[in-house]
Amino acid sequence: MTEFLLSLLQIIIVNLVLSGDNAVVIALACRNLRPELQKKAVFWGGFGAIGLRVILTFIAIWLLQIPFVQVIGGFLLIWIAVKLLKGEEEESHIGGGTNMLEALKTIIFADLIMSLDNVIAVAGAANGNMLLVIIGLSVSIPLIIWGSQLLMHLMNRFPVIVLLGAALLGYTAGEMIVGDKVVGAFLEGVLPALHIILPVALALVVIAVGTYLKRKHEKAEEDRVAQDHAEIL
């Protein structure tokens, strides 16, 4: 039971950390609607997005049963975690719908495109448990939809939330890699302790690499702004 609850908490945290962009999409898609339609569009758009994400996660769980796919998913999750820490913003040219149907289509389609990271992370954390997926998504996605502004404010005010979320993704990636049928069996034969060491090591690697790239990116931005300012003068 303890393991179930820990995995459920892992799924919820991963969803919350990775869904900032989705919250922005919802806000952009509904911005041109009349006030009385905005709440309806957010509700039904979010409902449709949840359904699609559950289906995609089930497909991902099925795919992760294929040998070596978990390893690929693990490395992809590491890339996602580093990108999250680096602070790269995805370009999102999301137009606001002028009627509720257009807004709903925009929310669902954009969420579908932007949910690859969520789907992979949730599938890895669930470790094949469909009940975990359903409960985790049912709890976390409504929190994202209706608490999106608060969520983004907290993440901006307390960067440690993002740091811990990225570390959790690194840990989940490690669990996915050692959970692969072929690779996991090989690692078990080489060093049984790797099943514990690798997830922790990857969490630390994500923090180190992501933090380094973030600082490098910020330094490059500062140099660019300074150069532009010097050219103006």
Name some characteristics of this structure.
11 helices, 233 residues, mainly alpha, transmembrane helix, Integral_membrane_TerC
Would you summarize the structure shown here?
This protein is mostly helical and 233 residues long. It has helices at 2-18, 20-30, 35-63, 69-86, 100-114, 116-126, 130-146, 148-157, 160-179, 181-190, 194-232.
Question: How are the SSEs placed, and which strands pair?
Answer:
Blueprint: H1 2-18, H2 20-30, H3 35-63, H4 69-86, H5 100-114, H6 116-126, H7 130-146, H8 148-157, H9 160-179, H10 181-190, H11 194-232
- The low-confidence parts are 89-94
- Per DSSP E runs of 2 or more residues, the count of β-strands stands at 0
Question: N-to-C SSE series?
Answer: HHHHHHHHHHH
Q: For the report, how would you describe the main beta sheet?
A: none
Overall shape: it is flat
Structural class: mainly alpha
Can you give the mean pLDDT? Answer: 76
Question: Could you characterize what this model shows?
Answer:
The protein is 85% helix and 0% strand. It has one domain. With 233 residues, it is mainly α. The chain starts with a helix and ends with a helix. The protein has helices at residues 2-18, 20-30, 35-63, 69-86, 100-114, 116-126, 130-146, 148-157, 160-179, 181-190, 194-232. Helix 1 (2-18) crosses helix 9 (160-179) and helix 3 packs across helix 6.
